Amino acid sequence: MNSAYHPDWCSEAACTAYLDEADQLHRSEPIVIETDDPTVELYVFKTAYDDGSGEYIEMVKLDVPTVRPWHLSKPFLGVELILPVSSAAAVLQAVAALA
Questions:
Q1: pLDDT tens digits for 16-36?
Q2: pTM of this prediction?
């Protein structure tokens, strides 16, 4: 990982903060939540700009299996997220862990 600034939660495997060809975000490892659809998983992770500002938590629905690095996989865009209670509880726990 680049020797420049990285938040303590930033993951070397997921960080693109100092890559010119990427979106230049620090990223935590995702917390992966299974959904009631066995072909879709929900990824919850923390991101921030390269200077550490703008921290936020992102949730992305991805097709399973995710063959590329998870943060480069194309999410389902424009899809309303309605979760069964079992998954919703896991989402709340993931967000709480990353906050």
A1: 898 888 888 999 999 999 888
A2: 0.77
